[in-house]
Design a protein that fits this description.
Blueprint (H helix, E strand, L loop, with lengths): L2 H12 L16 H16 L4 E4 L1 H8 L8 E5 L3 H9 L4 E3 L7 E6 L2 E7 L1 E5 L6 E5 L3 H6 L9 E3 L6 E3 L4 H7 L1 E2 L5 H7 L2 H12 L3 E2 L1 H10 L8 H12 L5 H9 L3 H4 L2 H4 L13 H11 L10 H10 L4 H4 L1 E3 L3 E3 L3 H15 L4 H13 L12 H11 L3 H10 L6 H25 L10 H8 L5 H17 L4 H13 L6
Parallel strand pairs: 2-5, 10-11
Antiparallel strand pairs: 1-2, 1-8, 3-4, 4-5, 6-7, 8-9, 12-13
Helix pairs in contact: 7-9, 8-10, 8-11, 14-15, 15-18, 15-20, 17-18, 19-21, 19-23
C-alpha cells in the first residue's frame, strides 16, 4: 500500500461521521436514475464488485436542483481491466483513453457512462499532474473530491440504494455551507482551480464558505499560476452563466483571487466620491450582469452578453477624470475598455470568435447614447450597420446597462430603446437593414469605372455605403451617376 493512499485513508477516517438524524433517505426522484442504472449495476454486483454513482448528479438529485442533463459518473472498487471486461460484453461501445487514470468509458444506446476505479491522488507542488494510486475504500475516493456536497456517493450494488456520506455533504447541502472534505489547504494546493470553482458554487447554490476555506484561498491564490489558462477560462464561463453570479464574483474580488487571472474586475472597485458624484463601477457592473437574464430575448447569445456586461466598463478606472460642472467623467472608456478586454480574453485563451464579439460589444455599448436627437432613418441605419450580427446582443446589453434608481430616467431610456427597435423593424421591412450593403457590388464598380480590383474599389464601396446609410436606397441610375461624379474627383492611381 502506497504512502499517499495511507495518508488519505487516515485523513478520511479522522472526519467524524454525521449524526444519524442527518442521514437522508434516498428521495423518490432518484427512481428514474436508479432504474436506468439497474442493468450496469447488476453486472458489477454479479462479479462481486461495488458500483457507486458520484458527483454532481447525486448532489443535484439530493438537493432537488434542476439539471439540463444527468451525467452517469460512477466509481468502483474494480480495477480498470476488470471494469473493461464487465462492460465489453454489455455496452455497445467501450473506450479506454482514460485507462491510465482508472477511467473506462462506455455507451449503451444513447447513454454514456464513465466508470473510474476508486482513486487516491497526490499532486506535485509545481504541477497539476497527479500521482495516481487506486483505493479499495469509497471513503478515500470521496476525500479527494473538491467540496463535501460533491463528496457523496450512492451505492448501486447494495440490496437497497445507500447514500455514502462520510463528510456530511447532505448536511452542508441543507445548510448551504461550502467546505472541503479534507483541510482546504490540502484541497486547494492539490488543485488550485477549486478556488475559482468555489466562487461558482457560492453563486449557484447560494452557499456560505466556512472561514477556513476563505483563508485558504487567500493563502494559496498564488498557486493558481500552475493552472492552464484554458481551465481558468472554462470555470469563468461556467460562473458567468449561473442565475445570479454576483456573490461568486465578490468572492473572487474579496479573496484577491481575481487579481491572479482577472485583475480588471477588482480594479473597478472605485470608492464612491460624494463630491464628484459617481457610483462604484464594480457595483454597477455586477448589477448589469444580473440584469442580463436568459429570457431577455428570444434569440441572443446569453453567455457572450453576460461576458460583455462583465467587461463593458473596465476602461473606466484608466479614463477617470473630473470636469467642472459635470463631475466625474470617463471619456473614451468604451475604446479603452475594448482594448483591455481583447488583451484579457486572449490571455485567457478565449476562441477568436468570442474575443471579437465581446470586444465589439464593449466598444459599441455607448453607441445608443450618441443618438440623443431621435431615431431618424439615417441614425437607425448607422446603428444597425455598426452592430452588425451583434444587434440583438447590443440591444440587450444597452437595456441592462441602465441601473439608475431614477425611475423617470429609466423609463425614458426604456422608451427610447423601444422606439429604436420599432424603427428597426419598420426600416428592415423596407430596406433589409440587417443585410446593409452598397447598392452596387465590387464587380459592378469595376465595370462602371473600368478599373481593376484593388483599393479604388474599396474606396468606392465605402463611398456608396455612406450614401446607403444616410439616404437609404437611391436606385441604380442615381447611384451610378453619383459614383461617376465621385470618381471624377479621385486620383486615378491605386
Amino acid at each position: 500500500m502506497g504512502i499517499v493512499y495511507q495518508m488519505l485513508r487516515e485523513s478520511a477516517r479522522q472526519v467524524p461521521s454525521p449524526p444519524h438524524s442527518l442521514t437522508p433517505v434516498v428521495p423518490e426522484r432518484f427512481a428514474p436514475v436508479l432504474a436506468e442504472l439497474s442493468d450496469v449495476s447488476a453486472l458489477f454486483r454479479a462479479a462481486g464488485k461495488r458500483l457507486y454513482l458520484v458527483g454532481g448528479t447525486v448532489r443535484d438529485l439530493l438537493g432537488g436542483y434542476a439539471s439540463d442533463q444527468i451525467d452517469f459518473d460512477a466509481t468502483t472498487d474494480a480495477r480498470p481491466d476488470e471494469t473493461k471486461k464487465l462492460l465489453s460484453g454489455w455496452a455497445d461501445a467501450v473506450w479506454t483513453q482514460g485507462e491510465k487514470f482508472g477511467t473506462i468509458g462506455a455507451r449503451k444506446g444513447e447513454r454514456v457512462y464513465e466508470i473510474t476505479t476508486h482513486r487516491a491522488e497526490a499532486y506535485h507542488p509545481d504541477t497539476r499532474k497527479p500521482d495516481v494510486e487506486y483505493a479499495d475504500e469509497i471513503e478515500v475516493d470521496l476525500s479527494r473530491r473538491d467540496f463535501t456536497i460533491n463528496a457523496m456517493a450512492l451505492e448501486l450494488t447494495s440490496d437497497t440504494p445507500t447514500l455514502v456520506d462520510p463528510f456530511n455533504g447532505a448536511g452542508d447541502l441543507m445548510t448551504r455551507t461550502l467546505r472541503t472534505p479534507l483541510d482546504p489547504d490540502i484541497s486547494f494546493s492539490d488543485d488550485p482551480l477549486r478556488m475559482i470553482r468555489a466562487a461558482r458554487f457560492i453563486a449557484r447554490f447560494d452557499m456560505t464558505p466556512v472561514p477556513e476555506l476563505v483563508e485558504a484561498v487567500r493563502q494559496f491564490k498564488d498557486r493558481l499560476e500552475i493552472v492552464s489558462a484554458e481551465r481558468v477560462r472554462d470555470e469563468l464561463n461556467k460562473l458567468i452563466v449561473v442565475d445570479s453570479p454576483t456573490a461568486g464574483l465578490w468572492f473572487l474580488v474579496d479573496t484577491g483571487l481575481a487579481d491572479k487571472f482577472l485583475p480588471e474586475l477588482p480594479a473597478m472597485r472605485l470608492e464612491n466620491d460624494p463630491i464628484h458624484r459617481h457610483k462604484d463601477v464594480l457595483t454597477h457592473t455586477l448589477a448589469v450582469i444580473e440584469n442580463v437574464r436568459p429570457d431577455a430575448h428570444d434569440d441572443f447569445d446569453f453567455r457572450i452578453t453576460r461576458l460583455s456586461a462583465l467587461f463593458h466598463d473596465v476602461g473606466k478606472p484608466a479614463t477617470r477624470g473630473f470636469q467642472e460642472g459635470k463631475g466625474t467623467t470617463f471619456h473614451m472608456h468604451d475604446v479603452k475598455g475594448a482594448k483591455m478586454t481583447k488583451k484579457r480574453l486572449i490571455a485567457l485563451r478565449f476562441p477568436n470568435e468570442d474575443v471579437e464579439a465581446i470586444t465589439e460589444l464593449v466598444r459599441l455599448h455607448l453607441r445608443f447614447h450618441t443618438y440623443e436627437m431621435g431615431w431618424t432613418d439615417s441614425a437607425v441605419r448607422r446603428y444597425v450597420n455598426d452592430a452588425g450580427p451583434l444587434l440583438t446582443e447590443l440591444n440587450v446589453l444597452t437595456r441592462c446597462d441602465c441601473t439608475t434608481r431614477n425611475e423617470r430616467k429609466a423609463a425614458r431610456l426604456a422608451k427610447r430603446m423601444d422606439e429604436l427597435e420599432e424603427r428597426i423593424v419598420e426600416l428592415t421591412a423596407k430596406e433589409e437593414l440587417k443585410a446593409m450593403r452598397p447598392e452596387l457590388d465590387g464587380l459592378a464598380v469595376m465595370q462602371q469605372l473600368d478599373v481593376p480590383a484593388g483599393p479604388i474599389v474599396g474606396r468606392a464601396l465605402k463611398f456608396m455605403l455612406e450614401i446607403r446609410l444616410e439616404e437609404g436606397l437611391v436606385g441604380d441610375e442615381e447611384i451610378r451617376r453619383r459614383l461617376d461624379a465621385w470618381w471624377a474627383t479621385q486620383p486615378k492611381s491605386n
